[in-house]
Amino acid sequence: MELTTIKGHTRKLDDWLTIFHMCAIVLPERPEAAEFDRLAHRTLHHFAQSDCRVAYVVIGSERGARRVLGKDADNFLCFIDPAGKFAEEVGITTVPALVHLRADTAFVDA
After folding, report:
1. What residues pair up with 77 in beta bridges, in sequence order?
2. What is the pTM of this model?
3. Within its chain, how far is the Cα of 23 from the centroid?
4. Most CB atoms closer than 10 Å: which of 24, 68, 71, 102?
5. 53-88: buried (b, 16+ CB within 10 Å) or exposed (e) per residue?
6. 80 conformational bin, left if phi > 0, alpha if psi -120 to 50, beta if neither
């Protein structure tokens, strides 16, 4: 699976997870998702202190992700997932969600 950052850099998931686990907050593109940004910001800021890569994954477009995340779109690693493939691959059926992936790309929990 490939993930694309909000800045347009695309790499396979295992390239993003070469050394560290990933803790990702998955949000929808809908405007009401902005209500979760404050809590998501605190969560990612907390986990950024540990040995894991933190990121947002927004199911939608770059424009929608920037609308939902505001400044966090540039302050944290942010992936856009227009087709919802990431959420589908890890088995997410309800968003927002907190997803933990191991460095070998194995899904741990959500």
Report:
1. 55
2. 0.87
3. 8
4. 24
5. bbbbbbbbebebbbbbbeebbeebbbbbbeeeebbe
6. beta
